Amino acid sequence: MSQALSQSGEPRPRRAARRPLLLPALGTAAALALAGAAFAQGAAAPPGFTAAQAERGAALYSANCALCHGDNLDDGQFAPPLKGSIHADYWKGRTASDLLTYMATAMPPTQPGGLGVQAYADIMAYLLQNEGVAPGDKEIPPDPGALTSAAPTL
Q1: pTM, whole model, 2 decimals?
Q2: What is the pLDDT of residues 9-49, one digit of tens each?
Q3: Residue 94 in contact with residue 152, Cβ under 8 Å?
Q4: Torsion angles phi and psi, residue 57, rounded to 5
């Protein structure tokens, strides 16, 4: 077997053999599909909240979040949507505790954590209500540790 030559006539270095990536890719896709199916089958449900908590969250959202995320939670010019498939896909496999912790430590960007954990729990209630979750009789607690088994979205 002869070796290929470069334009200058010198032997080209041999390239490493390429391995087919199809099998690992299929394995990853199957694992993701199974994880998504387990989540969809009720592996975790969103936390409960009250109508009053969602109402407080709506006012807080309007005052502190709408400028970036948009009045409808998905029409902002400066930040990603907070409802719909993009939001759900991003938070899939994570917990409501993760979302509350993120909100309480990173939002709003001009004053991270400046609203207090109760305000972030109220905003989460508003987000869940906009995802179609019905209010109940218990509020989302302002304690991320209490939300480790709850899903952040539908």
Answers
A1: 0.71
A2: 666 555 444 444 333 333 333 333 333 433 344 447 889 99
A3: yes
A4: -60, -35
Q: What 3 state SS string does the chain have?
A: CCCCECCCCCECCCCCCCCCCHHHHHHHHHHHHHHHHHHHHHHCCCCCCCHHHHHHHHHHHHHHCHHHHCCCCCCCCCCCCCCCHHHHHHHCCCCHHHHHHHHHHHCCCCCCCCCCHHHHHHHHHHHHHHCCCCCCCCCCCCCHHHHCCCCCCC
CA-derived radius of gyration, the chain: 23
Question: 44-147 domain in CATH 1.10.760.10?
Answer: yes
Question: Please, what's the largest Cα pairwise distance for the chain?
Answer: 80
Q: Could you tell me if 151 and 126 are in contact, meaning their C-beta atoms sit under 8 angstroms apart?
A: no
Output the six-digit token pair for 59: 């006012």
Distance between first and last Cα of the chain: 60
**CA 40 to CA 107: how far, in whole Å?**
28
